[in-house]
Amino acid sequence: MSYTYRYPRPAMTADTIVLCSREGEWYVLLIQRGRDPFKGKWALPGGFMEENERLEETARRELQEETGIVAGKMEFAGIFDRPDRDPRGRTVTAVYVTKTEECSDPRAGDDASHAAWHPMDNLPPLAFDHEEIINNILGRTKDEG
After folding, report:
1. What is the pLDDT of residues 74-85, one digit of tens each?
2. What pLDDT is stored for residue 111 in this prediction?
3. Could you tell me if 137 and 144 are in contact, meaning their C-beta atoms sit under 8 angstroms apart?
4. What pTM value is reported for the model?
5. What is the CATH number of the domain that holds 22?
6. Which of 67, 83, 107, 108 is the residue whose CA sits 20 to 30 A from 33?
7. Which residue, among 93, 76, 79, 81, has the nearest Cα to 141 in the 3D structure?
8. Does 1 fall in a domain?
């Protein structure tokens, strides 16, 4: 049986905040977008959920596709659902956080033109609402150590 409803169907994405510490300073992994919207801007690794995926699987897949990094333990950090957060249409994102022992060299891939570690106290201008996401999530994380 097939069901059809007139209700809107927002898109679902997953983004990952990847953190590493180098010489006592925290760094976050960002990708430079290779496509519009926000082509050339930096963003968290992430992307659209595939139909038969769970959100954490989406976060892991997108992280690996865009940076070559395979995540260890990931913690769910929150949902961001401001209606205007994505110019392509109504998009809700689930955010995960993972920490890595070393700031290994990322390898840009998929729709990322570059991938690099950025010091938390000197982030470039970010795409979408990713600055708000980082500030919201890491405001809590900093307190937790």
Report:
1. 999 999 999 999
2. 78
3. no
4. 0.91
5. 3.90.79.10
6. 83
7. 76
8. no
As a whole number of angstroms, the distance between CA 55 and CA 41 comes to 24
Q: Which residues of 92-119 are buried (b: 16+ CB within 10 A; e: fewer)?
A: bbbbbbbbbeebeebebeeebeebbbee
CB 7 within 8 A of CB 89: no
Q: How far does CA 104 lie from the centroid of its chain?
A: 18
117 within a domain of the structure (yes/no): yes
Residue 48, helix vs strand vs coil = strand
Type of residue at 45: P
The 10 Å Cβ neighbour count of residue 137 is: 20
Number of domains in the chain: 1
Residue 136 carries which side chain, given as an amino acid letter? Answer: N
Residue where the block lists tokens 């699987």: 57
Question: Per the domain annotation, does 2 fall within a domain?
Answer: no
Domain holding 53, by residue range, is: 11-144
How does pLDDT run across 53-108, given as a tens digit for each residue? 999 999 999 999 999 999 999 999 999 999 999 999 999 999 999 999 889 899 88
User: Whole-number mean pLDDT of the chain?
Assistant: 92
